[in-house]
């Protein structure tokens, strides 16, 4: 999986041959090319290589120009094709090797072209690819079970939300609904929150001191609350919960009844979250919004307020979940009083194969009936076969400990790197595990561009921040390489 900020040749072939007529010819030739010659940009190139390289760049550039007639471009992309990946590296059309600290925007946790995953895709594709949700498959059932088990295993002390035992004699049993993407997971979560809100309002279970109106109009309990700098996706419901004019303005009006307040600000919660609110969505670590970690007090207060007004607490762990912070879920770092009712996730679950999911508490699950929600592709056996492998790796204690250790190492290296510029060009270094950010005083786009020239791929986040979300298998040596390149760029850029 690559982020859409990079061009892949397959996208262009598809644009040229939209009916699946794309010739499958070139792949083998590319692979041979990489094996015979790779310019590791990280070690820099010789002058004859540079000449050859600029000729290749020119021809690739005109090829991309030709394809641009066919592609609807909603992303600004560099002028090369990415053609192959291996672990933490990507190889472009001139054979250059890039160190990938974007991981397709926090997706490729187990690295590009992971051999086990390739094998699983190959085997499963010969067995069963798709059957629809009209039937059970073992792959989907097993993935749901592993997700629930890993969730409970690393947080056994919880008594709230998805950890709440609903029946005195049985274990808590959160349940999983599979989707195709993050935004689709959030759309489902909004629907489940609305249905739950309707049911408890109808049953007269909402405290109505402030809004007596609910006694006569239970359908008014449909409002959703989210937080400034949160990002929840681009489909219209998720977009409505993403309070960023850049994303929302071209498409308003969006779904009604959405309120926002400041992240990590507890005083505003009572004003905006009330008996008409059916759901509150928050990222425990905001990714797109600039790598902002929720404080324990803030999440405790949000949970408390949700309980007071009968609203569902949704954690969007699409970017920060599934081992990225060094915990299986980012919220596992918080005390039980912060537990959510719903967790949405996607990105790394398929290591690039599109799959997402919604994990709901048993209490919410009891309000969702057959026919209430659906999807054609969500939970197909191919995606779930990959998901089973991904979860089996990401849920291992040793894996999580390594992410924590390497995350601390990255943070320490970024702090050292930033310290000469702190307070001047750089404002802050922050993050948890392998989701880290450097906030600059002004836009760091030129730094990201220069890094790309030196074959380090980075992605920006808002608030003038560069985001560091490498594959979770990144090594300390690769972190050193990335920091060395950035050190060179900072010296070039900031010393005069
Ligand atoms: C926190 C968060 N939520 C939702 C989304 C949307 O996910 P998708 O792009 O898979 O629809 C993203 C994507 O970056 C995200 O970071």
UniProtKB/TrEMBL annotation:
Annotated compartments: Mitochondrion
Major localization listed first in the record, in broad terms: mitochondrion
GO BP term, pick one: L-arginine biosynthetic process
Keyword set, alphabetical order: Amino-acid biosynthesis, Aminotransferase, Pyridoxal phosphate, Transferase
Enzyme class: transferase
Cofactor(s) for this UniProt protein: pyridoxal 5'-phosphate
E.C. no: 2.6.1.11
A Gene Ontology molecular function term of the record: pyridoxal phosphate binding
Pathway: Amino-acid biosynthesis; L-arginine biosynthesis; N(2)-acetyl-L-ornithine from L-glutamate: step 4/4
Listed GO CC annotations: mitochondrial matrix
Keyword Transferase found: yes
Recorded superkingdom: Eukaryota
NCBIfam families cross-referenced by the UniProt entry: argD
UniProt similarity note: Belongs to the class-III pyridoxal-phosphate-dependent aminotransferase family.
Name this polypeptide is given: acetylornithine transaminase
The organism's taxonomic lineage, starting at the top: Eukaryota, Fungi, Fungi incertae sedis, Zoopagomycota, Kickxellomycotina
